[in-house]
Amino acid sequence: MAIIGLGNALTDILVRLPDDSILHELGIERGGMYLIDSQQHRQIIDKIGHLPQSIAAGGSAANMASGAAMLGTPTAYIGHIGADVTGEAFREYQQRKHIRPLLGVSETTPSGKCISLILPDGERTMLTYLGAALEIGTQQLTPENMAGHKVLFIEGYLLNCPEVIETAMRTAKAVGTLVALDAANFTVINEFKSYADRLIDSYVDILFANEDEAAALTGADTPEQALEVLAPRCETVVVKIGPRGSLIARGTERCRIGTLDARPVDKTGAGDLYAAGFLHGFVKRLSLRQCGEMGAVVSSKSIEVLGAELPENLWDSIRPLVARIEAGESVVL
C-alpha cells in the first residue's frame, strides 16, 4: 500500500441551506466544525428535516483515501464504526473503492455522523456526532499495518485523541513511513494549538492547512507569512488559499499553484481531495509543482458537486488532466 489514512469514520448528512439563518439560530460560525452529542444531533436533525439533504460516506481521512484510490494509488484506512447499518455501509463503500478497511467495531455505540450545512456559496459548516468514531483505539496501529506504506495521513480532528494520534505517529516513524497531518479546521486548532505545535515539531513531515488554519497555527496576517513561519518546521508545507490556489514550501523551494475554473456548489471534502491528488503525485516522486497541480485539479473539480463522493463521470474528466500533469504539462491557471 502507498498511503494509509487514519481518522474519524463518519457518514455525512449533506444539507442545503437557503441562507445563514439556521447558523444564527444555532449560534455557530460559518465554516467552523462543532462537536455535538447524541441529543443535540437529534434536535438538529429535527430542525433541518424539511431541507434538501443527501447521505454519503465521509470523514476527512476517508475522503482522502477514496480520492487517492480513485486515482489508482493503493490505500488503506483505519477508523472505528458501530455494529449497525451505517457502519456496514461505510465498510462496503470502502471495499467498493478498493480501499483496505482496517476498522474497529463498537457493539454498543452508533456509528458517527457529520451534519454538513451547505450555504449557497458552497461554504460548509460541520456539526459532528462522533459516536463510535470516538472509540478509535490503538489496536490497529501496529507496525505490521503501518509498514510498507509511504505516507500515513492523519486528520487533525484526532487531536482530541492524543493516545491514538501520537501512537500512530510514533509507529509510522519507527517503520519509516512519512507522517502527513491535515490541520482539520481553525476551531480545532484554536482548541488544541499547543498540542498541535508539539506534534508538528516532533513528527510531521507533510502539513496541509487552509489559510484560516495556517493563521490559527502561526498568528500570521497573510497565508504567505504563515507559510514562511511553518516551512522550517516540516519537510513540506501546503497552505490552501481557496479560489486563489495554494502555496507550497519544501526547504528553500516555493510554489504557487493556481486552480481550474469551477462553479462552486459545495466545498465539502475539497481540502481532503486536494490532499488525495497531492499525495498521489508525492508517492510517485513527482515534483512539488506536479503534486500541487494534481491536488488543485481534484479539488477544483470536487466543488462542482454535492459532497466529497465524486461521480465516476467526474473522475473520467479528472484522470486525463492528472495524466497530462504527470507527463510534464501544466493544466491549472
Characterization of the model:
The protein is α/β, with parallel strands linked by helices and 333 residues long. It has one domain (3-326): Ribokinase (UDP-N-acetylmuramoyl-L-alanine:D-glutamate ligase). Helices cover 40% and strands 24% of the residues. It has twelve helices and 14 strands. The strands form two sheets. A nine-stranded mixed β-sheet has the order 6-5-1-9-10-11-12-13-14, with helices on both faces. Helix 7 (186-202) packs across helix 8 (211-218) and helix 10 runs antiparallel to helix 11. The longest helix is centred in the middle third of the chain and has 17 residues, at 186-202. The radius of gyration is 18 Å and the shape is globular. It starts with a strand and ends in a 7-residue tail after the last helix. The mean pLDDT is 93.
Topology:
Elements: E1 3-6, E2 10-16, H1 21-26, E3 33-35, H2 38-48, E4 53-58, H3 60-70, E5 75-82, H4 85-96, E6 99-106, E7 112-118, E8 124-129, H5 143-146, E9 151-155, H6 162-174, E10 178-182, H7 186-202, E11 206-210, H8 211-218, H9 223-230, E12 236-240, E13 246-250, E14 253-257, H10 270-283, H11 288-302, H12 312-326
Parallel strand pairs: 1-5, 1-9, 2-7, 3-8, 5-6, 9-10, 10-11, 11-12
Antiparallel strand pairs: 2-4, 7-8, 12-13, 13-14
Helix pairs in contact: 3-10, 7-8, 8-9, 10-11, 11-12
